[in-house]
């Protein structure tokens, strides 16, 4: 694989595994993450393998930093073939009890973060007449789940961004794609699963949702399995617009496409053990 690939959020999880797999296949990997220790250990692994790379600690909200990163990558490697926007945070809780200032952070990272990294590398891709922009979305970008209203909103927005962007950039030879996993067996969900306070009218259903979600995560693809699928998508000259990682997301997206809403709702509520 003779690609230069930029990945955001690559210090841990499936982003890290994808970076290592790509490097093992001959790709040049560039990227950044908020986790300096994770970046340091990843760089050490890539350097030990003799894989060309440029990985640095940085926050996706650092707009000037992103532009400086872009300039360094293009100067060092002359081009970028694929950008994978993998950075993202979760958000869980009954909408009525959401602190909207916290919700803004989720939207800023999940939506504007992807927009920032795509916008940074788009001009060089357009000038070359080639490139791929790939966004890590989610099943909830099409099938909203209860207690994930803000997270769902961020992924719906991300999908709208990519679907709209496609019309603008395909005439310049640039492909766009979405990756839409349901769950990956990582600590991602555990970091956000917090019960509503005692006395909340949503507490019992939220507790049942969390128990079911935690159980499902145990049987979900692990980061290595997810990364294999991500690398397959990056490796394609013309990836599909919508791509799934796991069987559950494929099933739910199929049901969402063909079943009446009332039936879809019953299936979802039963599946997550929150049907009254």
Query: How many strand segments?
Result: 7
CATH fold annotation = Rossmann fold
> How far is it from the N-terminal to the C-terminal residue, by CA?
51 Å
* CATH architecture descriptor: 3-Layer(aba) Sandwich
> Strand sequence of the main sheet, in spatial order?
3-2-1-4-5-6-7
Stretches where pLDDT falls below 50 for ≥5 residues? none
Walkthrough of the structure:
With 276 residues, this protein is α/β, with parallel strands linked by helices. It has one domain: NAD(P)-binding Rossmann-like Domain (Rossmann fold), CATH 3.40.50.720. 51% of the residues lie in helices and 12% in strands. It has helices at 13-24, 36-48, 63-77, 100-128, 149-169, 203-218, 223-235, 247-258, 261-271, and strands at residues 4-8, 28-33, 53-57, 82-85, 131-136, 174-179, 242-243. The longest helix has 29 residues, at 100-128. The model has no long low-confidence stretch (mean pLDDT 93).
Question: What layout of secondary structure does this protein have?
Answer:
Elements: E1 4-8, H1 13-24, E2 28-33, H2 36-48, E3 53-57, H3 63-77, E4 82-85, H4 100-128, E5 131-136, H5 149-169, E6 174-179, H6 203-218, H7 223-235, E7 242-243, H8 247-258, H9 261-271
Parallel strand pairs: 1-2, 1-4, 2-3, 4-5, 5-6, 6-7
Helix pairs in contact: 1-7, 3-4, 4-5
């Amino acid at each position: 694989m003779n690609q230069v690939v930029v990945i955001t959020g690559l210090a841990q999880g499936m982003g890290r595994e994808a970076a290592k797999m790509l490097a093992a296949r001959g790709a040049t990997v560039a990227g950044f993450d908020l986790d300096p220790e994770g970046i340091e250990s990843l760089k050490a692994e890539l350097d030990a393998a003799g894989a060309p790379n440029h990985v640095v600690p940085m926050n996706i909200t650092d707009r000037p930093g992103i532009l400086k990163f872009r300039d360094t990558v293009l100067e060092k490697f002359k081009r970028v073939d694929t950008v994978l926007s993998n950075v993202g945070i979760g958000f869980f809780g009954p909408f009525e009890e959401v602190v909207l200032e916290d919700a803004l952070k989720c939207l800023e990272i999940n939506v504007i973060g992807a927009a920032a990294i795509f916008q940074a590398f788009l001009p060089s891709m357009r000038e070359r007449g080639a490139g791929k922009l790939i966004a890590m979305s989610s099943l909830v970008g099409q099938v909203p789940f209860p207690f994930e209203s803000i997270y769902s909103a961020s992924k719906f927005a991300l999908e709208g961004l990519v679907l709209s962007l496609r019309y603008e950039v395909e005439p310049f030879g640039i492909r766009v794609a979405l990756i839409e996993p349901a769950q990956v067996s990582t600590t991602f969900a555990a970091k956000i699963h917090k019960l509503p306070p005692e006395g909340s009218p949503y507490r019992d259903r939220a507790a049942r949702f969390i128990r079911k979600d935690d159980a499902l995560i145990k049987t979900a693809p692990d980061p290595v399995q997810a990364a294999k699928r991500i690398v397959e998508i990056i490796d394609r000259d013309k990836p599909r617009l919508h791509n799934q990682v796991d069987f559950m997301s494929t099933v739910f997206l199929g049901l969402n496409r063909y079943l009446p809403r009332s039936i879809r709702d019953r299936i979802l509520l039963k599946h997550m053990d929150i049907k009254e």
